Amino acid sequence: MAEVKLQNICKRYGRTEVIRDVSIHVKNGEFITLVGPSGCGKTTILRMIAGLERITSGSLYIGDVLSNDIPSKKRGISMVFQSYALFPHMTVSENIAFGLKIKKYGRNEILERVKWAADFLNLNELESRMPKELSGGQRQRVAFARALVLEPDVLLLDEPLSNLDAKLRLKMRSELKRIHRKLNTTIIYVTHDQVEAMSLSNRVVVMNKGVIAQTGSPLEVYNSPSDIFVAGFIGSPAMNFLNGIIIKDEAHLFIDFDGFKLIIPEELRSNCEKYSGKEIIFGIRPEDITDKRFSLNNEENSIDAIIEVVEPLGDKDMIEAATGDTVLTFTADPGKTESGMHIKIGFNMIKSHFFDKETGKIL
Ligand SMILES: Nc1ncnc2c1ncn2[C@@H]1O[C@H](COP(=O)(O)OP(=O)(O)OP(=O)(O)O)[C@@H](O)[C@H]1O
Ligand SMILES: [Mg+2]
Predict the structure, then answer these.
(1) Phi and psi, residue 266, nearest 5°
(2) Ligand 1 binding pocket, CB closer than 6 Å
(3) 17: CA distance to ligand 1 center in Å?
(4) Which is nearest to 36 in space by CA: 166, 214, 222, 217?
(5) Which of 71, 98, 207, 267 could form a Cys-Cys staple with 40, CB 3.0–4.6 A?
């Protein structure tokens, strides 16, 4: 096991800066996930850690060793690529054994380790098959086995589940948790899928355009996003955002939207008060909006709305409701809502978020 420290890492291709001032401290045995939209620099960071890409500036420590110039092979790191990159002309066993042969392990040790990895990932019956004779999930497991036989201190996984269908992805997700629990290897995982990031890891690093937007536990980034990007990226369906103006009168602090008002609860007052008279962006998650017909919470602010779209998802309905020009998304118990209905919707204001309109930062 080893910890990995990135200190002020930058990466430029010619004049183009693709990673700017990234610092991450991955603890021993931690499962950390880099998550962000396509092109934000996730793969580039993994490749720099693996030694497949030069670091333009900043320091990379693996364990206590400054590793910027240590060759890839000597870093104690294995990487599983999105494409699996299995050798098509080798059997499953030969694929798993390949890295061990390169490292000149003895014949018996190779046999032993390959057997261990095949057992661990349920590949025993497939050992003599060729990659083209395997399903996507089986290929994925061979790619994991090939990385794990090397007993890496650090395992780097670049979107390893993205080629699998939804059901298999769920299965491999729990498989991956099992691998981590048993081996306690330090894992750095990359995905653009925020649900995957939230469900797998101890901590997530949310990236946007080559910089870190926020680092925290899954619940921290969900409950306390540091800016509007993180707020919109984490959570599904996505947070609702509305433009409003904060107004103060004798009794209350409230937000004035085009056509309705919501009272800001005492607990959030201190953050919002200094924005009195200013435009802000108000954010509320679909799960913090309710149809008042089914809500027990009388404290909530509520407004009139008309249901526009109902999407049945089985366990719940996803609903879009309009109030004036504003459309809000929320979920409700299935089968109780129809388009065209007039309802009152309630806002659990204590769970609301307020963002500076200029900077996008949380107030
Ligand atoms: N060899 C290269 N030369 C120039 N630019 C590059 C090179 N490799 C990557 N980039 C740029 O660096 C940025 C980050 O790329 P990277 O592959 O790290 O993104 P990513 O977050 O992994 O995206 P995805 O989710 O699509 O895999 C992109 O804008 C990409 O175009
Ligand atoms: Mg990538």
Answers:
(1) -45, -45
(2) 13, 16, 18, 38-44, 192
(3) 11
(4) 214
(5) 207
Residue 362 domain-assigned? no
The total number of structural domains that make up the chain: 2
**pTM reported for the whole predicted model:** 0.90
Distance 57 CA to ligand 1 centre (A): 17
Strands 65-66 and 57-62: antiparallel
- Tokens (6 digits) for 220: 């921290």
State the Cα–Cα distance between residues 239 and 236, nearest whole angstrom. Answer: 8
Whole-angstrom Cα distance, residue 116 to residue 127? 12
Question: d(Cα 302, Cα 261) in Å, to the nearest integer?
Answer: 9
- pLDDT tens digits along 47-102: 999 999 999 999 999 999 999 999 998 999 999 987 778 999 999 999 999 999 98
The tens digit of pLDDT for each residue in 292-349 reads 888 776 666 888 999 999 999 999 999 999 998 889 999 999 999 999 999 999 999 9
Cα gap 310→290, rounded to integer Å = 14
Q: Do 332 and 226 share a structural domain? A: no
130, exposed or middle or buried, with CB in 10 Å at 0-12, 13-18, 19+?
Answer: middle
Q: At 269, which helix (H) or strand (E)? A: helix 266-273
Question: Is residue 59 domain-shared with residue 193, that is, in the same domain?
Answer: yes
List C-alpha distances in Å: 205 to 5, 25, 83, 267: 14, 11, 23, 28
Q: Are 343 and 295 in contact (CB under 8 A)?
A: no
Ligand 1 atom showing the smallest separation from residue 37 Cα:
25
Place of tokens 């690093």: 205
* Whole-number Å distance between alpha carbons of 133 and 143: 15
Enclosing domain of residue 199? 4-233
